[in-house]
Amino acid sequence: MHMADRMRRARLKAKLSQQELAGKIGVQRSAVAQWEKTGGNLPSMHHLIDIALATGVTLEWLGTGRGPIKPDEETWTPAVQSLDYAQDETEYQCLQDLRRLPHRLRENVAGIIAILAKNYP
C-alpha cells in the first residue's frame, strides 16, 4: 500500500473529508487531494506528523506502512511480505517493466493478467 493510500485510509477511518483534514492541519484542500493522489506530491514530515495526530494513526504506519495503525493496537502490518518478492527472473523482469508504466496503464495490464490467469488452474 502506498503512502497516498494510507493517508486516504487514515482520513476515512477518522471520518474526515479532505476539507476537514486540511482545516485541522492548516493547509488547502488541494494539498490533501495531491497527497492522496497516486504519484502525487508527498507531505513534509511536519505535515505527516499533523496528519497522524489529526487522524489518530501512528506516524510509523502512516509513513512506512509498518507497525500498528492505531497506537493502542497490537496487530502489526509488515512493510514487506514474502509474496512481494519475485519468484524467478521472469517475474522480476515483469515487475521491473510494470513499475515503469504510468499508473493507469499498470491497472490495465493487471486486468489483462487477471483475465489470462482465470484460464489456468
Automatic annotation (TrEMBL):
Residue ranges of every copy of the HTH cro/C1-type domain listed in the record: 7-62
InterPro entries: Cro/C1-type_HTH (IPR001387), Lambda_DNA-bd_dom_sf (IPR010982)
Origin: domain of life: Bacteria
Protein's UniProt name: Helix-turn-helix domain-containing protein
Organism encoding this protein: Lysobacter gummosus
